[in-house]
Design goal:
Radius of gyration: 26 Å
Structural class: mainly beta
Strand content: 25-35%
Number of helices: 1
Distance between the termini: 40 Å
Helix content: under 10%
Order of helices and strands: EEHEEEEEE
Shape: extended
């Protein structure tokens, strides 16, 4: 397969790169004759750590686009390529660090919801605990952080109460 033409083949040999249609697979999967089982590790693509807003200077060219990358230099290269390859004069906002937040210690909560908008209204109370726990991925053996919510008491109506647990991943 070339960028502008496709050629049907009956077989592929070791080291050849081919395109296959209609097969349920992912990028990087390895196919064999079935006598051997090979598994290649998948490519790890880290999450972007910075983002910035880019928009064309001319008003009728479109709106704002957020681009993300691995750092300020990475984003500067994106912007320069936009200017050079597409010949678009772009105004650029300030870079922002992408923050991630998670539960780092046990957190107890007691939430009361009351809303009266006419008629019967809404009432509910939830008391519980949120904790972060580590789970091992059985396929990759890597640790994953999960947030576990345990509801100690919920009261949608003052006469009802049902304890339950749930995972939020």
């Amino acid at each position: 397969m070339h960028s502008d033409e496709m050629e049907d083949i009956q077989e592929a040999h070791a080291g050849q790169i081919v395109a296959v249609f209609g097969v349920d697979c992912a990028s990087g999967d390895t196919f064999t004759d079935g006598s051997v089982r090979y598994t290649m590790t998948s490519m790890n693509v880290p999450e972007p750590v910075m983002s910035l807003a880019v928009q064309p200077v001319s008003k009728d060219s479109g709106g704002q686009t957020i681009i993300s990358g691995m750092g300020e230099l990475h984003l500067d290269i994106y912007v320069e390529r936009i200017r050079r390859e597409y010949k678009v004069d772009a105004s650029v906002g300030k870079p922002r660090v992408n923050f991630r937040e998670t539960v780092t210690q046990r957190a107890d909560f007691d939430y009361l919801h009351k809303k009266q908008t006419g008629g019967q209204g809404q009432y509910g109370r939830v008391i519980g605990t949120a904790v972060m726990r580590l789970k091992r991925n059985s396929r990759t053996s890597k640790l994953k952080k999960d947030i576990f919510i345990e509801i100690h008491h919920q009261n949608p109506h003052p006469a009802q109460s049902t304890p339950e647990k749930c995972d939020i991943g």
